[in-house]
Design a protein that fits this description.
The structure holds 2 protein chains of 2 kinds. Chain A is an all-beta fold. Chain A has strands at about 5, 10-15, 20-25, 30-35, 45-50, 55-60, 60-65, 70-75, 85-95, 95-100, 105-109. Helix content of chain A is about 0%, strand content about 60%. Chain B has no helices and 11 strands. The termini of chain B are far apart. The chains are: A mainly beta, B mainly beta. The interface of A and B includes residues 33, 98 and 99 of A.
């Protein structure tokens, strides 16, 4: 299976703290993407990191990619209550995007 | 651009009935994807099109499911006959090369 694995499955933190989510995959990828899904809504693209990149930043988001370990992490700094959502990593193989199971993040105010 | 537009937002149908879900991708995007999301199985890729041509339908659960993309601005996913286990949220997404996918708001299907 090409599906990725994410951990933790759920994460609960206080507003202002950092949140780190991890993703592992099994076979070589073109790129890895992170998406957010608010309850009952569609998925929103957050950030894309290509296989030849190691780190990428976008606002309060920082993504790392280690192709030797086939893993990625998403760091959200200075979390806010509005960051409460499910976060998914997605691996692009060829022209297919395969999603992990997701991490449910709850930020308490 | 209004983004990826899916219709209907909600669909409740009786087992055995035909269901048609619709999707309008973002203008200029050359790839279109249909996903299904359930609690048990997460997000599953059902089928994707590139330049209106079906490329990979290996995720389509069975022959009851079919998808078409008659032109660059419209796609349908049809289930005939529908079964209760088809109940899920169905998402359509479009993309241009490897720049990230844009998802629609989804169709929540309930088969009773």
């Amino acid at each position: 299976s090409q599906q990725g694995e994410e951990d933790p499955q759920a994460l609960s933190i206080q507003e202002g703290e950092n949140a780190t989510m991890n993703c592992s995959y099994k076979t070589s990828i073109n790129n890895l993407q992170w998406y957010r899904q608010n309850s009952g809504r569609g998925l929103v693209h957050l950030i894309l990191i290509r296989s030849n990149e190691r780190e990428k930043h976008s606002g309060r988001l920082r993504v790392t990619l280690d192709t030797s370990k086939k893993s990625s992490s998403l760091l959200i700094t200075a979390s806010r209550a509005a960051d409460t959502a499910s976060y998914f990593c997605a691996m692009e193989y060829g022209n297919k995007l395969v999603f992990g199971a997701g991490t449910i993040l709850r930020v308490k105010s | 651009d209004a983004g990826v537009i899916q219709s209907p937002r909600h669909e409740v149908t009786e087992m055995g009935q035909e269901v048609t879900l619709r999707c309008k991708p973002i203008s200029g995007h050359n790839s279109l994807f249909w996903y299904r999301q359930t609690m048990m199985r997460g997000l599953e890729l059902l089928i994707y099109f590139n330049n209106n041509v079906p490329i990979d339908d290996s995720g389509m659960p069975e022959d009851r499911f079919s998808a078409k993309m008659p032109n660059a601005s419209f796609s349908t996913l049809k289930i005939q006959p529908s079964e209760p286990r088809d109940s899920a949220v169905y998402f359509c997404a479009s993309s241009l090369a490897s720049y990230g996918y844009t998802f629609g708001s989804g169709t929540r299907l309930t088969v009773v």
